[in-house]
């Protein structure tokens, strides 16, 4: 597949300048992956991160399908496995904490809700930073306040007052991307799913065991409790509402909002809310999918959540890995950025389209409205959790959903120049 693709895309990699410099906005997941590969493909990366240091909030995330091939090409697959959270599966529980359905890690061929490689976002971001920092200029505590494409270069003015020039600028600054707003204005379609989510760490309790526990309360509320590999527990609160703008409130107000929304939710919610009070890694955001006709404008291009947040799909990190690799590879192979960006979009679009497809009714299943709907959903899940059924579903969906590797092997292409 790789060699076929490489031939059909006809890369001309001769005479590439090694002096091109690229500003990457954001040191989350996509940013450091991009920095690592850009350096490897002969381009100088500079990463600017708005936060004063790496942002280590967040809970367990996973990398699936073709994203794992990128981990392998980065040479970090072993260290990621060594740092995985060791969760044994996910249990759907009722308000008394009784398990109604249980899916072990091995269910669905290791690709269920809890995959066979789950890692704390903080660990992943740290590993990616460590792996890229020796060849990357990292700037923390600053961000672009204006981005001016001058045709043959991009002039960036930073909030600190510094002004610098780059050959290209890449927005890897997440779902609320300021790069996207500065460069694309309102040409973005933001599909609000009317769901808010909060992540934070709470003290471990004996009841947490080694399984993630998923609890639904009526009125479209979810409490998810996940033991980590650091002696603490990661909590997630999800709720649905048609109100907009909660993501813009300050942290104290967001915590107050959650205390009100979850006040009568039952299960271990009082303990979760009490742990939230002292959580200093509290993270809150609206869940939305970003849909754009194109991801580049002149010398500026978007990658990861900034360009194609996939909402509730759980594929955001996988897309960030694949997108960063393809974009770095195409920039490495093409002196002409317009060609690079066109090929990036052509190769990346199918992954994004597949990830952004929401199965009708999936939000209803994740956040049922009434006690009856929750009980019915749990009965269906307890049937689905039987090994014969999970095995059947795995076989049925494997050929359709497996994220096959359909991107070129840029290392080989560049080695042949
Ligand atoms: C703190 C945090 C916690 C998260 N926790 C979870 C989680 O628990 N589960 C989950 O599924 N997903 C979580 N996510 C989202 C997840 O990381 C992404 O969906 C996915 O990994 C894609 O990564 P990304 O690099 O595109 O974006 P992100 O990981 O969101 O990274 C974007 C980076 O850009 C920085 N940034 C933002 N604006 C600017 C600016 N103007 N200038 C410079 N830098 C800027 C941000 O501080 C951040 O470091 C979290 C994101 C963040 C930022």
What do you see in this structure?
38% of the residues lie in helices and 24% in strands. It has helices spanning 2-9, 30-40, 65-74, 77-82, 121-132, 178-184, 251-261, 269-278, 305-308, 316-333, 337-356, 362-366, 371-384, 387-401, 410-415, and strands at 21-25, 44-49, 60-62, 89-93, 99-104, 118-120, 137-140, 144-149, 154-158, 163-166, 168-171, 189-203, 212-217, 221-227, 232-240, 283-291, 296-297, 300-302. The strands form four sheets. A seven-stranded mixed β-sheet has the order 5-4-13-14-15-12-16, sandwiched between helices. A six-stranded mixed β-sheet has the order 7-2-1-11-18-17, sandwiched between helices. The longest helix is centred in the C-terminal third of the chain and has 20 residues, at 337-356. The radius of gyration is 22 Å and the shape is globular. Flavin-adenine dinucleotide binds at residues 25-31, 48-51, 55, 57-59, 61, 121, 143, 172-174, 178, 199, 283, 304-306, 316-317, 320.
Provide a short characterization of the protein structure.
This protein has 417 residues and is of the alpha/beta class. It is 38% helix and 24% strand. The radius of gyration is 22 Å and the shape is globular.
Instruction: Note poorly predicted spans.
Output: 1-8, 12-17
Q: What average pLDDT do the residues reach?
A: 88
Strand tally, please? Answer: 18
CATH topology-level name of one domain: FAD/NAD(P)-binding domain
Which sheet architecture does the biggest sheet show?
A: 7 strands, mixed
Determine Rg (CA atoms, Å): 22 Å
Instruction: Count every helix, treating DSSP H or I runs of 4 or more residues as helices.
Output: 15
Q: What strand line-up does the widest sheet have?
A: 5-4-13-14-15-12-16
Bound compounds: flavin-adenine dinucleotide
Structural class based on helices, strands and sheet pairing = alpha/beta
From the structure provided, what is the oligomeric state, counting identical versus distinct chains? single chain
**CATH homology-level superfamily of one domain:** FAD/NAD(P)-binding domain
Helix content: 25-40%
Strand content: 15-25%
């Amino acid at each position: 597949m790789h060699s076929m693709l490489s031939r059909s895309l006809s890369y001309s990699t001769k005479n590439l300048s090694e002096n091109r410099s690229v500003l990457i906005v954001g040191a989350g997941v996509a940013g450091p992956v991009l920095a690592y590969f850009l350096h490897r493909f002969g381009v100088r990366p500079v990463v600017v991160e708005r936060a004063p240091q790496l942002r280590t909030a967040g809970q367990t995330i996973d990398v699936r399908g073709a994203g794992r091939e990128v981990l392998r090409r980065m040479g970090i697959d072993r260290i990621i496995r060594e740092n995985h959270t060791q969760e044994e599966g996910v249990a759907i529980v009722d308000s008394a904490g009784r398990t109604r359905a249980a899916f072990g890690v091995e269910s669905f061929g290791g690709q269920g809700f809890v995959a066979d490689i789950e890692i704390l976002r903080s660990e992943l971001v740290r590993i990616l930073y460590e792996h890229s920092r020796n060849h990357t200029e990292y700037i923390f505590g600053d961000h672009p306040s204006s981005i001016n494409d001058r045709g043959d270069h991009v002039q960036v003015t930073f909030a600190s007052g510094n002004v610098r020039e780059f050959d290209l600028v890449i927005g890897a600054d997440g779902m609320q991307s300021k790069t996207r707003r500065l460069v694309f204005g309102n040409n973005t379609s933001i599909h609000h799913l009317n769901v808010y989510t909060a992540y934070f760490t709470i003290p471990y309790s004996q009841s947490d065991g080694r399984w993630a526990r998923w609890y639904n309360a009526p009125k479209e509320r979810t409490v998810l409790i996940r033991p980590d590999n650091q002696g603490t527990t990661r909590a997630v609160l999800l709720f649905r509402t048609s109100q907009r703008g909660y993501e813009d409130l300050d942290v104290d107000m967001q915590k107050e909002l959650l205390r009100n929304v979850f006040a009568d939710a039952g299960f271990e919610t009082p303990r979760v809310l009490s742990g939230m009070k002292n959580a200093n890694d509290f993270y809150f955001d609206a869940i939305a999918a970003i849909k754009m006709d194109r991801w580049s404008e002149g010398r500026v291009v978007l990658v990861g959540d900034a360009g194609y947040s996939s909402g509730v799909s759980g594929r955001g990190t996988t897309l960030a890995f694949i997108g960063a690799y393809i974009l770095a590879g195409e920039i490495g192979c093409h002196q002409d950025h317009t060609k690079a960006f066109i090929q990036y979009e052509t190769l990346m679009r199918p992954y994004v389209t597949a990830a952004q497809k929401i199965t009708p009714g999936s939000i209803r299943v994740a956040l049922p409205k009434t006690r009856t709907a929750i009980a019915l959903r749990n009965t269906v899940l307890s049937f689905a959790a039987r090994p014969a059924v999970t095995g059947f579903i795995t076989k049925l969906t494997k050929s359709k959903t497996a994220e096959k590797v359909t991107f070129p092997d840029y290392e080989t292409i560049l080695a042949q120049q």
